[in-house]
Amino acid sequence: MPQERPYRVIQWATGSIGRISIRHFVDNPAYELVGVYVTNAEKAGVDAGTLAGLDPVGVAATGSVAEILAVEADCVNYAPLYADVDEMCQILRSGKSIVTPTGWVFPQGLANQKPVERLAAACREGGTSLYGAGIHPGFSGDLLPLTVARLCTRIDRITVQEVADLAQHPSRAMNFDGLGFGRDPDDARKNPSPLIHTMENIFRESMALLAEGLGIVVDEYTTLFDVAVTTRDLVVRSGEIPAGTVGGMRHEWIAHSGGRPTIVFRSFWKMADDLDPDWGYGTIKYSVAIDGEPSTTLTLAPAHPHPTGDEGYWGRVWTAMNAVNAIPAVRAAPPGIHTHLDLPLVRPVGLFRPEPARVVRS
Prior knowledge:
The chain is α/β, with parallel strands linked by helices. It folds into two domains: 7-133 and 326-338, 3-Layer(aba) Sandwich (Rossmann fold), CATH 3.40.50.720; 143-310, 2-Layer Sandwich (Dihydrodipicolinate Reductase, domain 2), CATH 3.30.360. 28% of the residues lie in helices and 27% in strands. The strands form three sheets. It has a seven-stranded parallel β-sheet, with helices on both faces. Strands 13-8-11-12-7-14-15 form a seven-stranded mixed β-sheet. Strand 1 (7-12), helix 1 and strand 2 (31-37) form a beta-alpha-beta unit. The chain is globular.
């Protein structure tokens, strides 16, 4: 919770989420940015402010793990595209807690518990904590339905739907190499790209957290995956997508209980609206639909478009801030791996402050 001095934080990786986080740490007097770790050699030595589209702030990025681990800090905002358990264990053993949008929202739900045991041991050795959060998973698929469920007297099924427009997302590594936009559709269906497999584990964690929170015994988890093709050549922020290749993808993760689907997550990631097939999901960002008594629907969407026209920007802010705003609660928690089910109510600090006079596209 709030403390006399600012929380000393390190930003680990400076992709789209990392840059948003840096701007928050610089703007919010409750935090002090004391270090930045980068994986791109061209970014090493560059001022953190410059990397985040700000004026220089006097903190130079480093590509040396040993150098960044030597920096005294309370917490690391760990935001690479893929989590590295060895890296995370080093951070935790060095006395720095971790908040991260890379998963770990409910590690107890993972099929492979060996990495979880290693991370728990590192927390004990370093006297530190690990907490995973984000927008989905980490909020709309777990914390949000857990909250809405308090209004119901009976629940038959929970359906969480995400619609993400990635046309203005800056990361080629995520969109093309990770998710597989621009691929041949038949090959993408048969051999999903690496991040698709990673997301399957991460979303299973979120569903397991929701099931645990509501006392649902899950019999099995199933997955459905399909792609849509673009009918024209697309030029998006992260690259070019030829006509006839993957321009959209739909994923369903389903938790079955008592022989029926009980929790359903649907994600639709698109690069354009005129795709084949047209799944008709519209522009709703996130929705939670509870079938039961009473049946209840809640929609989460930005109230205003971003000034640059980047439809997905506010979703990336949500992803970053749900983890970052938990730093005070994570630091106050006892050592170990924490989730929504055991962490106290997160009370963000430093949010009521003057608005910076700038518009950043990043």
